[in-house]
Amino acid sequence: MNPESKQALIDYLITMADDELILGHRNSEWCGHAPILEEDIAFANIALDEIGHAIVWYELAADLQGEEREAYANHMVYFRDVRDYRNTQLVELPKGDWAFTMLRQYLFDQFEMMRLEKLAQSSYAPFAEAATKIRTEEIYHLRHTQAWARRLGLGTEESHRRMQAALNDLWPYALALCEPSNRAELLTQGGYIPDSRALKTAWLEQVTAYLGEVGLAIPTDSSNLPLSRTHHTEHLGQLLSDLQQVARLDPMAKW
Amino acid sequence: MISDVVQEIWQALDEVKDPEIPVVSLVEMGIVRDVVIDKSQVIITITPTFSGCPALHAMKTDIVQRLNTLGYANVEIQTTFTPAWSSDWISESARAKLREFGLAPPPIHHGDLNVMLWEVATCPYCGSTKTSIRNSFGPTACRMIYYCNACNQPFEQFKPL
Description:
The complex is a heterodimer of chains A (255) and B (161).
Chain A lengths: L2 H26 L8 H29 L3 H10 L10 H4 L5 H22 L5 H29 L3 H19 L8 H6 L6 H18 L20 H16 L6
Chain B lengths: L1 H12 L3 E2 L2 E5 L6 E7 L2 E6 L9 H14 L5 E5 L12 H10 L1 E2 L10 H4 L12 E5 L7 E6 L4 E6 L3
Parallel strand pairs in B: 4-5, 6-9
Antiparallel strand pairs in B: 1-2, 3-4, 7-8, 8-9
């Protein structure tokens, strides 16, 4: 792998890891507050899985840089500032109501599943192996969030209204998931990652069909928000101060 | 000679229990993949059942401690996803122990995880298949929750993965 591809791959892994970390942390806010006990258990597990997946991606990025895995992951999670995070704004938005949370998770899960299926064939073997493993776990997530999207989309007048409102709010942010990262073309040419345009087309087709089936309409007039991964909303800073405050109180502490 | 040493280490690892399911060992669960001796260093390769399993750290500590007591001071643990862990690897003996522990073993799926859609879970307490799924998630990443309609007992099943 040439140095340029290597750096691009590190950057790509960090976007994936940051998305999973921030979404996982956001979802953990439901722990103890989900609508029913079974869901509290289920969603806390999903949050935990996403954070676990973030660690896997950080570790792959560490290996590419010759860094020690645990120290690198700890640094990436606890000691970076807002401007250094490369997650999409989609995952940093406040958790909202249950419809918003479930729909965001569904849109993310569907994208992640389709991407993992492609990444399982990555020419960078460690990437392909991790994607193969994580895909098996994501099957449970996607099945769960699909079921909730159906239940709420076709449920009561109120649940449907809340879902459609959530979709209208989330849609422009969700599209940002599909935006190519830095030098993505270089990585696609090397067979490291799937083609972002083809992935976007496939994802759009899938979510449009499924959401249509559960009575939800994709908004057509999405406004142009500044959706770059280098720009964040005020919500990320608040999230990070919560996530990082203990580690930063005593950076040398041993657990 | 080396193989005797490796054999001894495998035996020792077969005594290290899964921190979340203390009736089965890491070897029976298919978590320990390889034991290699490189000069004075012992390299153990393990593969996580769930990539984000919080018990992984405890497993590593337990392995190092067990081997330290055998006199191996220099133990390195590596993790691998090649091949990805499958619940099909859980040994027959471990399946029996899981059942006794009150945890239904995962159905054999041969790589098709839709298995849970057609395979009926068997109650580990009464053996009935009149069961229904209550939650495809559970108290740990690797378990889901069922209910037995015959003995009216909730139970957990190890997830097919």
